[in-house]
């Protein structure tokens, strides 16, 4: 199993955001490896590039799946934007066709 997949499993099992250093330590521990700067840097780079992870700020990383999904308000089929006045937004019927 790849190190980044193990980091994903560590976060998933923990159930909440982890400080990057703790995430790296737990990942390396699961891999049966001692902390080496080069290996830790490699895992950190993979986490940064993997879309499954989300940086929350303050050195905290979490899973992107834990983020609320953005709603496509004011968009029609194929993501085309539709201008909607804020006061008129409530009047739009969900069944209204988007053109």
From TrEMBL:
Compositional bias of kind Acidic residues: 87-99
Gene3D superfamilies in the record: RNA polymerase, subunit delta, N-terminal domain
GO cellular component, one term: DNA-directed RNA polymerase complex
PROSITE patterns: HTH_HARE (PS51913)
Domain HTH HARE-type intervals: 1-66
GO MF annotation terms: nucleotidyltransferase activity
The protein's name in its UniProt record: RNAP delta factor
Species for this entry: Candidatus Hydrogenisulfobacillus filiaventi
Gene, per the UniProt record: rpoE
């Amino acid at each position: 199993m790849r190190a980044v997949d193990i980091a994903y499993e560590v976060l998933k099992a923990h159930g909440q955001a982890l400080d990057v250093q703790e995430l790296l330590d737990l990942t390396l521990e699961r891999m049966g490896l001692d902390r080496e700067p080069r290996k830790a840097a490699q895992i950190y780079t993979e986490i940064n590039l993997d879309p499954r992870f989300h940086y929350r700020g303050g050195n905290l990383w979490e899973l992107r799946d834990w983020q609320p999904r953005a709603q496509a308000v004011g968009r029609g089929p194929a993501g085309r934007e539709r201008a909607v006045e804020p006061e008129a937004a409530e009047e739009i019927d969900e069944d209204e066709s988007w053109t």
